[in-house]
């Protein structure tokens, strides 16, 4: 009873984007193309063997869904075991275990106007959304892109090419700390305001380091942009990449997440349950103790469910509750709207009714 979401992909190309950021391009064999189909804004999880154990790390996709390959861009993190390996040691021809794309930092539509806001390597998912919207949509895009200095701008040349290709639709505003200091909330609000009030406005997408994201969110709130138009993908840089005792306790480093902060605390109304789980065209019935999350209960039953962070932060484990009730121990990624649509996180879901039917789509 197992379902592996990890597949070996071969590195077909490596591109040094800056002195500490490198794009890793995977060739996807035809047999895996369907499994690795993705939406702009999603991420891949790497499973890297280390000292007889495995480290899981998530990296946003920078390529677009219509390209035959997958590209992630990795920035070296101080003392980061996996990021240092990816930037310094990974070679063309190496094989990496990669999980199918996941994540919900995805525009519902790319037909309207978009405000894209990136800080540093937060450009990665933003770049995928940007290129996809330019190719598939017809709206205007303003990209606010903050960096330390010129040399740390990832995709500098590609952005120049795109602005030449779409002069009427794309405007890129670079903010460099080395030139004008850290951008103030007031400046960010001024840059966002005229754009965010267009009739055709689809939404604002933000990704980058925490201080940039906080400033950007504050700026957008200060111009009264409705919360349901703001999408946030938060990078979490842990001080140390954890070396875990196998899959069960791995925590990803370099990411992630949220759309809207939301959390349901566990309560004393949890009950032992039977879970019916639909996964990869098969149905499994398992015992689900009220002490365990759905992910833990499935692992005890020998069933492998998709997951990455195990912290309620990445949505890799997202599934739908078709019948019954669950309670989330923590949730930093699903919005109220997602929860109303019966979406849940298996890594945080606790049983709240005696029968629960779960479906992975
Ligand atoms: S595994 Fe990341 S939210 Fe569940």
UniProtKB/TrEMBL annotation:
Residues 4-108 form the FAD-binding FR-type domain. The keyword Repressor does not apply. Keywords: 2Fe-2S, FAD, Flavoprotein, Iron, Iron-sulfur, Metal-binding, Oxidoreductase, Ubiquinone. PROSITE patterns: 2FE2S_FER_1, 2FE2S_FER_2, FAD_FR. InterPro entries: 2Fe-2S_ferredoxin-like_sf, 2Fe-2S_ferredoxin-type, 2Fe2S_fd_BS, Beta-grasp_dom_sf, Cbr1-like_FAD-bd_dom, FAD-bd_FR_type, Flavoprot_Pyr_Nucl_cyt_Rdtase, FNR_nucleotide-bd. Residues 273-361 form the 2Fe-2S ferredoxin-type domain. GO terms for molecular function: 2 iron, 2 sulfur cluster binding; flavin adenine dinucleotide binding; metal ion binding; oxidoreductase activity. Pfam families: FAD_binding_6 (PF00970), Fer2 (PF00111), NAD_binding_1 (PF00175). It comes from the Bacteria. Its cofactor is FAD; [2Fe-2S] cluster. PANTHER family: 1,2-PHENYLACETYL-COA EPOXIDASE, SUBUNIT E, NADH OXIDOREDUCTASE HCR. This is Ferredoxin. It comes from Shewanella pealeana (strain ATCC 700345 / ANG-SQ1).
């Amino acid at each position: 009873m197992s379902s592996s979401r990890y597949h070996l992909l071969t590195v077909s190309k490596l591109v040094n984007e800056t002195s500490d950021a490198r794009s890793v391009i995977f060739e996807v064999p035809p047999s895996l193309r369907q499994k690795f189909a993705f939406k702009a804004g999603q991420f891949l999880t790497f499973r890297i063997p280390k000292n007889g154990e495995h480290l899981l790390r998530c990296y946003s996709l920078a390529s677009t869904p219509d390209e035959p390959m997958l590209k992630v861009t990795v920035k070296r993190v101080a003392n980061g075991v996996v990021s240092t390996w990816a930037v310094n040691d990974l070679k063309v021809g190496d094989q990496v275990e990669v999980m199918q794309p996941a994540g919900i930092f995805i525009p519902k539509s790319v037909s309207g106007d978009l405000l894209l806001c990136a800080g540093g390597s937060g450009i990665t998912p933003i770049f995928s959304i940007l290129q996809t919207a330019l190719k598939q949509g017809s709206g205007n895009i303003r990209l606010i892109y903050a960096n330390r200095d010129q040399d740390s701008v990832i995709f500098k040349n590609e952005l120049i090419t795109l602005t030449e290709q779409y002069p009427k639709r794309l405007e890129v505003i670079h903010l460099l700390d080395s030139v004008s200091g850290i951008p103030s909330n007031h400046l960010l609000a001024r840059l966002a305001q005229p754009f965010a009030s267009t009739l055709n406005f689809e939404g604002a997408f933000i990704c980058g380091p925490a201080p940039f994201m906080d400033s950007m969110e504050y700026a957008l709130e200060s111009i009264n942009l409705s919360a349901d138009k703001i999408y946030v993908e938060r990078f979490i840089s842990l001080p140390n990449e954890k070396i875990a005792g196998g899959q069960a306790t791995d925590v990803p480093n370099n990411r992630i997440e949220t759309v809207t902060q939301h959390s349901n605390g566990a309560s004393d109304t949890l009950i032992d349950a039977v879970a019916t789980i639909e996964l990869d065209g098969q149905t499994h019935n398992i015992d689900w103790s009220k002490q365990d999350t759905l992910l833990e209960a499935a692992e005890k039953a020998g069933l492998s469910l998709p997951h990455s962070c195990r912290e309620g932060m990445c949505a890799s484990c997202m599934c739908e509750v078709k019948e019954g009730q669950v309670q989330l121990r923590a949730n930093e990624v699903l919005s109220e709207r997602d929860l109303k649509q019966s979406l849940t996180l298996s890594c945080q879901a606790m049983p709240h009714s005696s029968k629960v039917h779960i479906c992975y789509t």
